[in-house]
Amino acid sequence: MSDTPPPPPQQPPAPGPGPRETSPETHVIDYRAAERLLAARDPRGALRLLDSVIAAHPENTAARLLRARAFFASAQLRAAEREFALVLEREPDNAFAHFALARTHERSGRHEQARRHFRLAAALDPQPEYLAAARFEK
Fold it and tell me: What is the CA radius of gyration of the chain?
């Protein structure tokens, strides 16, 4: 006989946070939560939620537009530009996307590109903010 005691019985792993189950409802909840996070000035938190939504629904233009806004708010300008451009490929008449892309170009120091998109935004939707940014000559 050996003097070493037998090994303790194996315990099953403690339940803990495993992979999160996702469903269409989960994606809607994540999208809405991302909107609230962006409004609360937490763009990086919004981006974390939107990544899974867009991975599951890459065709969802609203989610892409929200992600573009979150990229812009977190000063990730190249990523914002890519997302705004993708939205405009799908919806070339989206005045807000043109305006936001123009702001992105402006912030990046690309003023001629910004001016073009400001003018497109104003032509598509003559809101005072868009018209002022377009700076049409009289």
Answer: 23
Q: Are 99 and 121 in contact (CB under 8 A)?
A: yes
Cite the DSSP H helix spans in the chain. Answer: 24-39, 43-56, 61-73, 77-90, 95-107, 111-124, 128-134
Q: What is the pLDDT of residues 76-111, one digit of tens each?
A: 999 999 999 999 999 999 999 999 999 999 999 999
Tell me, rounded to whole angstroms, the distance of Cα 118 from its chain centroid.
21
Domain residue limits at 30: 23-76
- Quick one: CA torsion of 45, 60, 68, 126, rounded to 10 degrees? -130
Q: What is the pTM of this model?
A: 0.81
Residue 85 belongs to a domain? no
Number of compact structural domains in the chain: 2
C-alpha torsion angle, residues 11, 15, 16, 18 (rounded to 10):
100
Q: Which two tokens stand for residue 81?
A: 């530009």
